[in-house]
UniProtKB/TrEMBL annotation:
<dbReference type="GO" id="GO:0032259">
    <property type="term" value="P:methylation"/>
</dbReference>
<keyword id="KW-0489">Methyltransferase</keyword>
<dbReference type="GO" id="GO:0004851">
    <property type="term" value="F:uroporphyrin-III C-methyltransferase activity"/>
</dbReference>
<keyword id="KW-0808">Transferase</keyword>
<protein>
    <submittedName>
        <fullName>Uroporphyrin-3 C-methyltransferase</fullName>
        <ecNumber>2.1.1.107</ecNumber>
    </submittedName>
</protein>
<keyword id="KW-0812">Transmembrane</keyword>
<keyword id="KW-0472">Membrane</keyword>
<feature type="transmembrane region" description="Helical">
    <location>
        <begin position="39"/>
        <end position="63"/>
    </location>
</feature>
<dbReference type="InterPro" id="IPR007470">
    <property type="entry name" value="HemX"/>
</dbReference>
<dbReference type="Pfam" id="PF04375">
    <property type="entry name" value="HemX"/>
</dbReference>
<keyword id="KW-1133">Transmembrane helix</keyword>
Length: 364
């Protein structure tokens, strides 16, 4: 058996397959034992080389992995440092911004307080100006309404008062002040009430009074021998026919003279029948004066006095004048109509408007 060369020792174990004998003979020669030892040494060296190669490869891979991890850690550390520096910069900027914002907020709060103070002062000034304007408006409306009320009470016409209430309503609506809304509602209620109660105008009553004053002179009294009823004088002698014989004419003449000597009648009002012509004149003038007094009372809105005067005129008309006459009956009808007009006419009142104006002028 020849000795192995160095090139054979340096060849890798996998180059030549080694067949391990299953059993070693108990009695081998020294050469065989040396060859077996050499073979075992080669196998051990191959195994050691293989383990060393695997360890080297593992070490290289591990080193590469550790190097990658170092690079990644270094990169992450760099990025973290950059982010930290950026975060510090941002934090410094945020701190500066917060400081600036705090300063601005403090300045804004100061300005807001100043603006609030100026606003409160301006509101007080506006309220004082508005209050003075409202007071002037209320005073003007109240004076106009009171003047129109006096004019309506004197003349008996509601048109000036309604015009004053309408003008006051328009001025309040143009002013657009909620504080004056109760005054506006009160004026509207009074205007509606006056329009509803203005159905009976005093002008009609004044016209009827004037007609009665003119017709007093034509009213027949009870003591007048006048034409009554069918237009024939009851005390006049009967007419004598023209074709009557002489004896009939004599008889009719004697009969008429006899009837004119004695007159028989029923006297219900002796004072009316016993009136002298001069007293009849003063009676008519007294009736005219009473009617004129009723007219003045109606103009001055004294309804009780007007009703009293009309009642006296009615009593005198029923007592001293002929009730069967058509003129007397027409005068009595007019007096009844006048009584109804005066009774239905009430004094002009605008209590709601005056109370609302007083409340508004007091500032409540």
């Amino acid at each position: 058996m020849s000795a192995a060369s160095p090139s054979d020792d340096l060849s890798p174990p996998s180059a030549a397959p080694v067949q391990v004998p299953a059993t070693v003979a108990p009695h081998q020669t020294p050469a065989a034992q040396a060859a077996a030892a050499t073979l075992l040494a080669r196998i051990g060296m191959g195994l050691v080389a293989l383990v060393a190669l695997i360890a080297l490869l593992s070490t290289i891979a591990l080193w590469q992995k550790v190097g990658g991890m170092k690079e990644q850690l270094a990169r992450q550390s760099t990025e973290a440092t950059a982010q930290s520096m950026e975060a510090r910069t941002l934090a410094r900027q945020a701190s500066d911004t917060v400081r600036d914002a705090a300063a601005r907020v403090a300045l804004i709060e100061t300005r807001v307080a100043e603006v609030a103070l100026q606003r409160s002062q301006l509101e007080e000034l506006i309220q004082s100006l508005s209050r003075s304007r409202d007071e002037n408006l209320v005073i003007d409306i109240e004076s106009a309404v009171r003047l129109a009320l006096q004019q309506a009470q004197v003349t008996g016409s509601l048109e000036p008062l309604l015009a004053a209430l309408k003008a006051g309503d328009l001025r309040i609506a143009r002013a657009a002040q909620p504080r004056l809304a109760p005054v506006q509602r009160a004026m509207q209620r009074d205007a509606d009430r006056l329009r509803s109660s203005a159905s009976t105008d005093s002008a009609e009553a004044l016209q009827k009074l004037d007609e009665l004053v003119r017709s007093v002179d034509d009213l027949p009294t009870l003591n007048a021998v006048a034409v009554r009823g069918n237009g024939v004088n009851a005390w006049r002698p009967e007419p004598i026919p023209a074709d009557a014989p002489w004896w009939q004419r004599v008889l009719l003449t004697i009969r008429g003279e006899a009837r004119s000597l004695v007159r028989v009648g029923r006297i219900e009002s002796p004072e009316a029948v016993l009136l002298a012509p001069e007293q009849s004149y003063f009676l008519r003038e007294n009736l005219k004066l009473k009617l004129l007094n009723a007219r003045l009372s109606l103009l001055s809105r004294q309804m009780d006095a007007a009703r009293g005067e009309l009642g006296q005129v009615t009593a005198s008309l029923n007592r001293y004048f002929d009730p069967a006459s058509r003129r007397t009956q027409a005068a009595a009808t007019q007096l009844q109509q006048l009584q109804q007009l005066v009774r239905s006419t009430e004094p002009v009142r605008i209590d709601d408007t005056l109370a609302a104006l007083t409340t508004a002028a007091a500032g409540r």
